[in-house]
Design a protein that fits this description.
heterodimer; A: 773 residues; alpha+beta; ten-stranded mixed beta sheet; six-stranded mixed barrel; 24 helices; 20 strands; 18% strand; B: 252 residues; alpha/beta; six-stranded mixed beta sheet; four-stranded antiparallel beta sheet; 7 helices; globular
């Protein structure tokens, strides 16, 4: 055994560059695998813990008054509840010139049992008037500290409050993912903010015996208590998905790329080991001649590679542990939870064992073959015969009358078909990944450049709090840059399925010049008449309806018919929503006044100045928002993740290529000497190697790009459409130009990567090698 | 070219005061392989360089063929000084004007015999048809036309050396350099290769061969003796009475 060990160590020391390369990619692959495992476990854990600490509500019901909700607590399946509490909407918080839309809960000085706000800074409310506790992420975003004073808009003007604490809310999604932020006040203070009972709602926090059935439960409640039909509810599944959504997304990507990275590692290992065996053909013969058994020869290879893999794997796990907080901190930050640990022994072991198993698998066959090499043959011939007949690519190169130097390089690259195939495979994975990344980038760019694709079909959106509809319109009309206005309001509708199940969904009510706005209607047409509806793809799937169908719905318990005339793009509520003209719902909501105004601006208008003017003119009552104001955070995150992962795959692919080329050159070192002896210049040798490499990169590009596009489409359909309510219309492919540039870039990179082995070949000292056998 | 650069009009290869020192890695001591070797070879000569192992004969041959550069001294090939040229320039000269035959054949393993022979012709840009014709001709002359499609691994030592010889001659080089061409061959193959060398010499090919075997050296018109990196003596058979052809291995 010690002889085997000694031999293995000697080998490791002797092949530094190659071993170095294999080391690098195993580190990369292990790190990626570890990250995938850790991230997918991470966020869920944090959220679940926070939810448990807060005794979070499985459903939060809203209703017009406390009495309407009280009956719910007595229902079967309810294991606990808090409230009903007074709730007020449509008031805004103003701080440092910025406005935030709020939902205000009136909670007692004794924090409730269910949906307990988790204090992170400061203290809870006391009997002292005009205190407020803010949702943590809002306060962080706005830079509001405990002890600061904020203003809340009221009919009588802004009302000053003191911030006594910051807390985490588990009953709703966090700001800014959910646009309306949370704050808590005492009922007394709340009454000062909103004295009108007609504009005060109520909220009830409920825990269920069967949390998984929360949606079903909510449907039953709404069916039973019709007063609640317009009020909607917050379900813990949504809240949880929101908190973990980012991590889910990242996990999917990381998972997918781990697979790709591991596949690439497998190829490289197989290549490197196979090549090592070939290169050491003679040495193996000698080993056996001096008494190594076939088993021991195999053991040498296995030992070498497992040792290398173990060392690299440990580094990889360490790298993963170092990088993991970047992914884990985000969720933890949101929830003010301590970051989940970056190091999990079981996951580290899993990643390590996974990579070790993979390497063992791909080392075993070549190692076994290495042990089987005929001793005499190995010693006397000294090399494993390569393919004698020119391979297809070589014959093609000949036929194309390419220079003999190029043909020689091509012959070299494909002299060992298996190795060439493996290398091409690994490079194909790289190209596939890059194509995928380009596609994601293209779609992200398109969605950002065209907000209408996600439903923001306007240049600017204004929301009023205390100002009346008339006052708001009066303000808007004075601005000549505003060329069109329509109002958007929000109600809820119900549909009763054949099964008796009631489904509740949101309905956008459009009134005014909406036909002039760039709503993206993917199928059918824009609504034009009462009782026509456009629906998002999510709703179409939910209700199983198509354009042209007539659907019976109820508003406030009163039935009517909607005819679906079009499919519109809007990613609110996972596209589970409908759009109707105001005339459709006016019979059911005669007194409702619109709160949201969508604006189109004239070409070349100064939107920032207009925004400022509207804010000032309205005394900061209006909330003014532009879709182009900020790049969605998700986009930046996804970009970073894609960039990182593409980088990893690129490194792996090029390293594989480098390994192969080094092996090829190493094997052919003597031949390069001979070629130089018969008159090939160093430059011609480099050209020869580069030609061979290009020919490995070419099929990778030809196969990788279409496959990358296909893979993108599959992912989009599977993840985007099914999971996130993305409309097929959003699907974007990268431009032909970017793909056209990808091909030569990849080939150029490959050739660049080959310069090291090429220069080695070119620098072979002819006289040196001729001196010895 | 200056006056002293123009020599005996018949000289094809001239080495003057050639020195070669090797510096072992990390070692300040230089190991001298050549200490001022002088040699003139005329067109059409068959010269053998002999000497004990380590005397520098192979080193000298490599330098004469432009495979290596001397540490000091001059080397002239066909009136042109080559020791000052860079590697690429020497390669270009080598492919046209020098043919090499080695002790260990040094054929390209994954090319057939025919492709091996054709390679130098293709390198200098000979049209494919012409290159093909020339290689067929050589393979025929050397009696290995039936092995044209085989890879070196499938050929015997003697056959491989004949392929190597064909390759060396394909571009009709000014000089053929052979380093222990029979060192790895059995006696039958040795006889064949020597007879081929003689034949080409008789048709005008200039040949310099390095050997430690006196019987191999006996086919040469002139034998140059080397010791310790210098030329120490010469025997010019051409100047003697007509040599009696001696077949290798026959008892005299």
């Amino acid at each position: 055994m010690s002889a085997v060990l000694a031999r293995a160590l000697a080998d490791l020391r002797g092949n530094r560059m190659q071993n170095g390369l294999v080391f690098v990619i195993i580190v990369a692959a292990t790190a990626t695998l570890y990250l995938a495992l850790t991230v997918s476990r991470g966020a869920d854990d944090v959220w679940d813990r926070t939810f448990a600490d807060a005794n979070g509500p499985h459903v939060t019901f809203f209703g017009p008054a406390e009495d309407d909700l009280a009956g719910i607590t007595a229902l079967d399946g309810v294991t606990g509840s808090s409230g009903p509490f007074l709730t007020v909407w449509d008031h805004s918080l103003v701080y440092a010139g910025a406005k935030y839309e709020m939902v205000l809960y009136g909670l007692p000085t004794e924090r409730p049992e269910v949906a307990r706000p988790l204090l992170t800074e400061g203290r809870w409310l006391s009997d002292v008037a005009d205190e407020i506790v803010l949702e943590r992420t809002l306060a962080l975003d706005a830079g509001i500290e405990v002890g600061d004073h904020v203003w809340v808009t009221t009919a009588a003007g802004p009302h000053e409050l003191m911030v006594v604490g910051r807390a985490i809310n588990t009953s709703r999604g966090t700001f800014p993912n959910w646009e309306v932020a949370t704050a808590w006040l005492t009922p007394t203070t709340l009454a000062v903010i909103e004295p009108d009972p007609a504009r005060t709602d109520a909220a009830l926090f409920v825990r269920l015996a069967q949390p998984e059935e929360s949606e079903h439960f909510s449907a039953q409640v709404v069916a039973r208590f019709s007063a609640l039909s317009q009020y909607g509810n917050d379900d813990w599944h949504e809240v949880r998905a929101d908190a973990t959504e980012w991590n889910t997304l990242v996990s999917i990507f990381l998972g997918g790329f781990s697979v790709a990275a591991l596949a690439a590692v497998a190829f490289v290992i197989a290549n490197a080991i196979g090549g090592r065996v070939l290169a050491q053909f003679r040495e193996i013969g000698l080993l056996k001649a001096i008494g190594f058994t076939p088993g021991q020869v195999s053991q040498v290879f296995l030992l070498e590679n497992l040792a290398l893999t173990l060392a690299a794997g440990l580094f990889g796990v360490a790298a993963g542990v170092i990088v993991a907080p970047i992914f884990l901190d985000r969720t933890a930050e949101m929830l003010n939870a301590p970051s989940p640990p970056a190091f999990h022994v079981d996951l580290a072991a899993a990643a390590l064992l996974g990579v070790l198993a993979l390497v063992t698998l791909f080392t075993w066959l070549p190692a076994w073959r290495g042990g089987r090499i005929g001793t005499v043959q190995a010693i006397t011939i000294g090399f494993a015969p390569a393919q004698a007949r020119p391979s297809l690519p070589a014959r093609l190169a000949e036929w194309l009358r390419l220079p003999v130097v190029v043909v020689a390089g091509v012959k070299d690259s494909f002299a060992r078909p298996m190795r060439a195939v493996l290398t091409v495979f690994a490079l194909t994975m790289t190209v596939l990944t890059l194509t995928f990344a380009l596609s994601v980038e293209a779609m992200t760019d398109r969605l950002i450049a065209n907000p209408a694709l996600t439903g923001n079909a306007f240049d600017m959106r204004v929301e009023r709090s205390e100002l009346s509809d008339a006052e708001t319109r009066a303000l808007l009309v004075t601005e000549p840059e505003i060329t069109a206005i329509h109002t958007r309001d929000w109600v809820r509708a119900q549909v009763t399925e054949d099964t008796g199940e009631t489904i509740s969904f949101g309905v956008r009510v459009l009134d005014g010049d909406y036909a002039r706005f760039p709503y993206v209607v993917a199928e059918g047409r824009l609504i034009a008449k009462p009782n026509e509806a456009m629906v998002g793809i999510g709703l179409m799937q939910l209700l199983d309806v198509r354009v042209g169908d007539e659907v019976p719905v109820t508003f406030e318990g009163q039935p009517t018919m909607l005819r679906i005339v079009g499919r519109v793009l809007d990613d609110d509520d996972d596209a589970q929503l409908a759009f109707v003209d105001a005339a459709t719902v006016r019979p059911f909501f005669p007194d409702v006044q619109p709160r949201e105004y969508a604006l189109l601006l004239a070409e070349g208008s100064d939107a920032t100045a207009l925004q400022a003017r509207l804010l000032n003119a309205s005394g900061f009552d209006l909330d003014v928002w532009r879709p182009d104001e900020e790049t969605p955070e998700e986009a930046t995150t996804i970009r970073t993740v894609m960039l990182g992962l593409s980088g990893v795959l690129l490194v792996i692919g090029l390293v594989n290529l480098l390994t192969t080329t080094l092996l090829n050159v190493h094997e052919r070192m003597r031949d390069y000497g001979v070629l130089k002896a018969i008159g090939m210049t160093p430059r011609e040798v480099v050209l020869s190697v580069a030609s061979g490499v290009s020919l490995l990169a070419l099929p990778a590009v030809v196969i990788g790009i279409p496959f990358g596009l296909w893979f993108w489409e599959v992912t989009f359909r599977a993840v985007g459409e099914s999971e996130m309510g993305a409309d097929p219309e959003m699907f974007t492919q990268p431009s032909w130009l970017s793909l056209a540039l990808l091909a030569p870039s990849m080939i150029a990179l490959a050739v660049l990567a080959s310069t090291i082995p090429a220069r080695r070949a070119a620098r072979v000292e002819v006289a040196e090698f001729l001196r010895y056998e | 070219m200056a006056m002293h650069d123009r020599l005996n009009g018949d000289a094809i290869l001239v080495a003057r005061g050639v020195e070669k020192h090797y510096r072992a890695a990390g070692n300040s001591i230089a190991l001298p392989a050549l200490r001022g070797a002088d040699l003139i070879v005329n067109r059409g000569e068959l010269v053998a360089i002999m000497g004990p192992s380590g005397c520098g004969k192979s080193t000298l041959l490599h330098i004469l063929g432009g495979l290596d550069r001397p540490t000091a001294g001059e080397v002239w090939l066909d009136g042109r000084r080559i020791d000052t040229l860079d590697e690429a320039e020497r390669a270009v000269i080598r492919r046209r004007q020098i043919g090499f035959v080695f002790q260990f054949f040094n054929l390209i393993g994954n090319l057939s015999a025919a492709d091996n022979v054709e390679l130098p012709a293709r390198l200098i840009g000979t049209p494919r048809i012409e290159a093909r014709r020339r290689r067929e001709e050589l393979l025929e002359e050397l009696g290995i036309a039936d092995k044209a499609g085989e890879v070196p691994g499938r050929l015997s030592g003697g056959q491989r050396q004949r392929v190597a010889l064909a390759r060396a001659l394909v571009n009709r080089p000014a000089v053929l350099l052979a380093d222990e061409p029979t060192g790895n061959l059995d006696s039958g193959s040795t006889r064949d290769v020597l007879s081929l060398l003689r034949r080409y010499h008789q048709s005008g090919q200039t040949i310099i061969l390095v050997t430690h075997d006196t019987e191999v050296a006996s086919i040469a018109g002139r034998v140059v003796m080397m010791r310790d990196g210098r030329v120490v003596g010469e025997t010019d058979r051409a100047a003697e009475t007509e040599p009696i052809p001696v077949a290798i291995g026959t008892e005299v």
